[in-house]
Amino acid sequence: ASTSASSSPFVHLMASTSGTNNPYQLALNITCHAWNGDHSMVAVCPNNHEVHIYAVKGKSVKEWERVHVLSEHDQVVTGIDWAPKTNRIVTCAQDRNAYVWRFEGGEWKPTLVILRITRAATCVKWNPDEDKFAVGCGMKCVPVCWFEQENNWWISKIIKKHKSTVLSVAWHPNGVVLATGSSDNKCRVFSAYVKDVDKKKGATNPFGGDLPAFGEVIAEFDQARGWVHSVSWSPNGQQLGWSGHDASIHFTNTQRDVQSIKIRDLPYAAVHFVSDTQLVACGHDFNPHLYTYTGDKWVFTKKVDEGPVKTTGGEKSAVSAAFAKFQSQAKRGEEKSDATESLTTKHHNYVNCICPHGPMKFSTSGLDGRVIVWECK
Known about the structure:
By secondary structure, this protein is mainly β. It is built from three helices and 30 strands. The strands form seven sheets. Strands 1, 2, 4, 5, 6 and 7 form a six-stranded antiparallel beta sheet that branches. It has a four-stranded antiparallel beta sheet with strand order 3-30-29-28, with no helix packed on it. A four-stranded antiparallel beta sheet has the order 8-9-10-11, with no helix packed on it. Helix content is 6%, strand content 45%.
């Protein structure tokens, strides 16, 4: 259930080199995060079975207060999504459960979700209309869930046809087409049309032709040579992007033209379209990367984290700095070393989550326990 945490200490904004992208140190590690509609509150999982909700203290965005703790799950929470219009939070976890949370009487109350899975849930996303959500899991399937008023619970219908764990899900803007990324190295697009929920929407197949029945494959892409960690649709629904563990990123359009880019850095764990022509990707390199559509192809534009940080012993990459820190801990048992100081990125560990944060803005979180808001200019 939900518990109040108003007595918890404030979380202070730390110094940074530029205006928007200030790091919020909210925990030692963060598994995932999500914002409410006006971005005055953020929900994070501190790498355990709880979800902590922080609110802006007064009118200052420099201080955050932990106001609620959601503790219904028994194992690590793997996904959080906060519906901006209905103000409902959906969470999923390794305990094979999902809950929809509603704020009533000053506290968050969970509603049961009938997932019908026997393996850990890995991710969860509301559709744009906020009347359905999809859950990825280790059972090689995706439960698509909607509310059944008669029994006061959320029921599900299963999308199958995966050969391994589903690591990421993303809704098309029309709310009835779903993209998935799986550890079988494929990105797939499915029909998620549920008659009882979607019969009045008049949605169409973005790839052309009739919209097939629920659970049927619309498109399948196998360009990645590693796990597909993340998928994302552009706001206009004309572009689809996904990242592979083979240090690759891929793009396709509604004509199914695929462009693949091999990156020189470490693999991306999350991708997100900030506009129809800009996509950000981040992961093991600690630094968000920006890709831009030039009219005929996607190109790498820059590393978003450009702010200089004071270094010791010369400049080092995030990878070499992290390795040096590990060596310091292994050889000398020291938690602190020059490696931490030499990191040139605001994130100091693996970045595992990207969330929208208003027009041309996005936020990232990672295993360093930081939430950082960025602006694409």
